[in-house]
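Incident log, structure service

09:12 report received: a user says their structure output differs between two submissions of the same chain.
09:20 pulled the input from the user's history:
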Amino acid sequence: MKRIELIIAGILVPLDYCLVVLSGWLSYNSRFLNFVTGIRAVQYPLPYTDFIKLLFISAFLMVVIFAWNGMYETTGTRRIVDELRKIVLASSTGILIIMIVLFFNRDLFSSRYIILLTWIISIVLVSGARLVVILVERALFKRGIGVHRVLLLGASRSAAILDKAFRTSPTLGYVVVERAQHLSTDIVEKLKKIVRVKQIDEIIVADQDLSRQQIVQLIDFSKTHHLAFKYAADIFDSKLSHVVMRPVADIPLMELQRTPLQGWGKIFKRTIDVIFSLLALLVFGPIMLLTALAVKLDSPGNVIYRNRRVGEQGKLFDTLKFRSMKQEYCIGEQYSHNAEALDLEKKLIAEQSIKAGPVYKIKDDPRVTRVGRIIRQLSLDEFPQFINVLKGEMSVVGPRPHQPREVEKYADAQKSILSMKPGVTGMAQISGRSDLEFIDEIRLDTYYMENWSIILDLYIIFKTPFILLQKRKAL
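09:34 re-ran on a clean worker, output below:
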């Protein structure tokens, strides 16, 4: 255990307690501001001293719930998304418990305004503090302070991925000081020397071919020399990330799932899709009307372009986009010039595509109109896809939708991303938009599919507008 990890963990507990108390104090005082009392007068005022006593007790309960939710784990590799998820979940749980207690004892407190505002402010303040802590940790890691010095064993794909990640991303908090491809007969003696000379903190084994006896030997060695021991379970070459155990007839059956987006998760995601799409169409309606008018005035033809794409489970559907190309170059069975337009596109792909693999991206595309270049740069052409979301063909967040002729060229493993609805935005879009190489796009979309959460969706939605301002290589 690194000293810096213990120091940070020790600071977080009193810091969170103080922030929760501050949240309650701010909420209490805001209740008596003129503009708040003007909306709703104070019905049952609670004396300040009584409120403070109740606040101190409630803050202690919140910190206990924070700890129960794993917010004080002594680890040096905190992820922002995971921390935010824990904070929202723990804060919501704590407030819910407090509201239940107060419901059965209304003599204690009855201001829903103060309770709900405390919940919101505490999430903001604790999240802000966590973000600062994570940034400080990463800054220390970059300077080699508090990093875990690792002996990495194995020649598997997982070992190679870990080795590359540790070497290229110092903010993870790991440094590979020794790499062993295979275990030899005299490995114990070699390990003793390595640990003594290079001051190893932990051993990470990423080799599924090791025997049970070898694993036990390494575990015993780690215990003897006070080293942390970690094992990368490389079963099925790390292609399955979610395992759910369900007993049937008293026999535990292990179900391998490609994504956590199951059951209630799917219901929650669909609910967010409908609400967000309706809000987007309402808020951006005037911009969409202006965009439609600009497209119509710039060149003759339909304002909306229907483009055939592959959706969930390989189902075909038409994405709705503002037309950004001249009408005679639009591709689709609905156009009489479809064959000529396809031939031209194949020629442009061969001569001007800047992407390798199944997906193409034509640089300096001569088919794009003047308005088309502007709306592509700002992604205004994709706003009508919120209608696709309402129809259930797409999601607000998901993998990028591709054309059938592109999907036909996918490798079998790459078709796994078709197990969920494509999105208006997604991991690929906020990580490079259409300038990414296809293999990187698939990697990001696969990560999203295997690690989906509501918090991740909200993070991607929040980050998308900032990405739209960045310049693209091709339009």
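09:41 both user submissions now match this output. Likely a transient worker issue. Closing.
09:42 reviewer note: The two ends are 50 Å apart (CA to CA). The chain has three domains: 3-142, 148-238, 264-467.
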